[in-house]
Structures are given as C-alpha cells and as structure tokens.
Amino acid sequence: MSKYKKEFGNFGEDLAEEYLKKKGFKILQRNYRYSRGEIDIIAKDNDILVFVEVKTRVNLEFGPPELAITKKQQQQIRKTAEAYLIDKNITDTGCRIDVVAILKIKNKPPRINHIINAF
Questions:
Q1: Which of 41, 83, 109, 110 gives the lowest tally of CB atoms within 10 Å of its CB?
Q2: Residue boundaries of the structural domains of the chain
C-alpha cells in the first residue's frame, strides 16, 4: 500500500472516529486485525457493539464510497468481527456492522454518510 493511500485512509478513520464520538459512541479499538481481515473501528453505541467499516473517497469517479464494499469484503468483515468476539470472549452483547462513508472533495468540507446496520 502506498504511503499516500495509508495516510488518506488514516485521515478518513480519524474523521469517522471524531464523528462517532460526537454521536456518543465510545471507541474501543482501531484497526483490529485477524488473519487477512481488518475492522477499522470497534465502538460501543450504548449497549451495542459496533464494527465500523470506513470508506473515504476524493471524487465520485467510481461512485460513492459506501458502494465500494464488495460482497467478498462484507464476508471478510463479518469473519473478522466474529474473530473479535471469540478473541475477546464476548458472548452476551448485541452487535452490528456500520459503514461510515466519507467524500472529501478538494476545497469542500467532508460529506459523511453513516449507514447503521449496513449489512
């Protein structure tokens, strides 16, 4: 992964974390990795454990960022979320997967679309 791509990904995750905190989420962890999968942000929304996938784009050339998550990526995110639950021995908590899509067009404020229970 290029340095620019990694820095831009971190920029998007920082924005998403700030956004979620303002909405009252408690951030538990960022960039949880298991095998080939990664969860960008793991948070609590009241009593619900939330696995958050962050997608950030600079233009709409390939469509909005929220549509960039393939079925294969969705399956990998689910597997990684399940691994987190096993790894942390969590058995009694409701869970969901959200998407925070960020469009950051040059010279414009970022547009954030939070999709609750996205898939």
A1: 109
A2: 3-115
How is 5-18 classified by DSSP, letter by letter?
Answer: HHHHHHHHHHHHHH
pLDDT in tens, the chain (119 residues): 566 566 767 899 999 999 999 999 999 999 999 998 999 999 999 999 999 999 999 999 999 999 999 999 999 999 999 999 999 999 999 999 999 999 999 999 999 999 999 99
Please state whether the predicted TM-score (pTM) of the whole model is above 0.85: yes
Nearest alpha carbon to residue 22 among 41, 52, 45: 45
Is residue 73 within a helix (H) or strand (E), and if so which, with residue range?
helix 71-87
What does the DSSP 8-state code read for residue 71?
Answer: H
* CB 82, CB 40: distance < 8 Å: no
Of 92, 109, 110, which is closest to residue 101 (Cα–Cα)? 110
